[in-house]
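JOB MANIFEST
job_type = single_chain_structure
chain_count = 1
residues = 249
[input]
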Amino acid sequence: MANSEKQAGNKLTGRAGAAAEARSLVRQGLKASLATLDHKTGDPVASLVTVATEANGFPLILISTLANHTRNLIADPRGSLLFDGTGGSGDPLEGARISVSGRFAKAEPPRTRDRFLARHPSAAAYEGFADFDFYRLQIEGAHFVGGFGRILDFAADELTIDISDAAALIEAESEIVDHMNTDHADATELYATRLLNGPPGPWRFAGCDPEGCDLVLGELALRLAFPGRVTSPQAVRKCLVALANEARR
């Protein structure tokens, strides 16, 4: 399983463990291959986009109406995103990947904007342009390959999480992220380096949800999974304190 799932104490195995790994792979993605249907010919077309996720796990992209893939989605919202976890390996059998499919629809700020810019700060230079819009992928299914012979198809509810009971956490997410980045940068680096085997550097929080937090360093992203589900800011604080103590030990 992914380091974040192991290090944070998640003991899931079998299909549940693979689903957790698949969710983590999507959460860690900073970019993905976008597949759409050409609005003129109907032929499949692939492009590369930067990605983030909503708190429940739906992928987010920021695209311009000047781009062909946006015109394609306006004409036919069906599409998919391929998240590649194979790293720099030239052999696709060496790592995990997942193709998430469904229909794209416009996603409205401000929370969408906050989550996207937390992962991609440079996008602030153009996200306010009139031709740019956020789109979410309403997941309908996914095809996951976790290595040689480890292939599973997942339904939407296996790739997303229920946040209906976590309104307090979702409302406080921006404050949690700002607080950790402003006052606890040392703890954030400990999470990344000692619990997730990431390289040293100025790691920062980019998002928080009932299952864990997203950490980013430049072009790297890691998923810090909580030992158990949390639904309030107080519970998040308790988990982060415990994980910081674990990292220091």
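[summary]
The two ends are 23 Å apart (CA to CA).
Confidence is low (pLDDT under 50) at residues 1-9.
exit_status = 0
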